[in-house]
Amino acid sequence: MTFDKTPTNQTVIDPLDLSVSDVTGYRTVDLEGIDGHRSVADVALSVAEVLSLPGDIPYGLRDSLSARMLVDDESIGSQIGQNSELAAIPKSHLGVGRLSGEALSRDERFDSQTEVMAVTL
């Protein structure tokens, strides 16, 4: 189920044709007839599956022309133009969940009570 989160004053391009690559640019897929009212997060999930990207991490979409990350919970057709080129970017975070270095489970990553060790680069 998807929800249209387009601000009422914005035009939505629908249907939408676009090209999406993985972050390395090695794999690219051309998509035609995408529902412009779908949320960016929903489209990013579909793109990750089509590109055979690891399914255990979330992805965002970046407009390759402007280098701007698209807003996940807004409709894709209100943020980009027809035939846009996008990149699927993994949403990764530095650090570990415990001082012992044990990795966090998927549920713990979003738990505001989890202690995260600071990383100095």
What's this model, at a glance?
The chain is mainly beta and about 120 residues long. It has one helix spanning about 40-50, and strands at about 15-20, 30-35, 60-65, 70, 85-90.
Task: Describe this structure as you would to a colleague.
- The protein folds into 2 domains: 75 residues, Roll (Ubiquitin-like (UB roll)); 29 residues, no CATH class.
- The protein is globular, with a radius of gyration of 16 Å.
- A hairpin with a 5-residue loop joins strand 1 and strand 2.
- It contains 1 helix and 5 strands; from the N terminus they run E-E-H-E-E-E.
- The protein starts with 15 loop residues before the first strand and ends in a 31-residue tail after the last strand.
Give the secondary structure arrangement, pairings included.
Elements: E1 16-22, E2 28-34, H1 40-50, E3 59-63, E4 68-69, E5 84-90
Parallel strand pairs: 1-5
Antiparallel strand pairs: 1-2, 3-4, 3-5
The largest sheet has its strands arranged as 2-1-5-3-4
Q: Radius of gyration from the CA trace?
A: 16 Å
> In the CATH scheme, what's the topology name of the largest domain?
Ubiquitin-like (UB roll)
Q: Which descriptor suits the 3D outline?
A: globular
| Portion in beta strands | 15-25%
